[in-house]
Amino acid sequence: MSITQLSVFVENKPGHLADALGTLAAGGVNVLSFTIADTTDYGILRLVVDQVERAEAILSSTGYTVVDHQVVCAVLPNEPGVLAAVARLVSDSGLDIEYIYLGARDSLLLKTEEFERLEILLIENGFRVLGPGDLR
Description:
Number of strands: 7
Largest sheet: 7 strands, antiparallel
CATH class of the largest domain: Alpha Beta
Number of domains: 2
Helix content: 25-40%
Shape: globular
């Protein structure tokens, strides 16, 4: 049920983020969620898109380094304390979260090596977990 996230390495210079996103837009790919983490020379643009294979092909053909990962995407009610409750739930389960960020449609994206275990944990605790078909 997990979804594919693309990690794109983007040079940390003015205009390069706009170029990467513009490349996707020109190819008809819709960005549904994203976050970016930077280092001195490069940023890692993490994307959830509506057409994973197309996005990967477009970006790779234009010189970007692209890596795909499975992430868990859970819908959160928009109310105080929910994010803290999820963080505590995951922590108490002993799962290791590599990174986490808010996404589209009131969602939370979580990267872990044990994504199937995380999906089960979230579902058993009343959270809706999205699959690829839910993102179109």
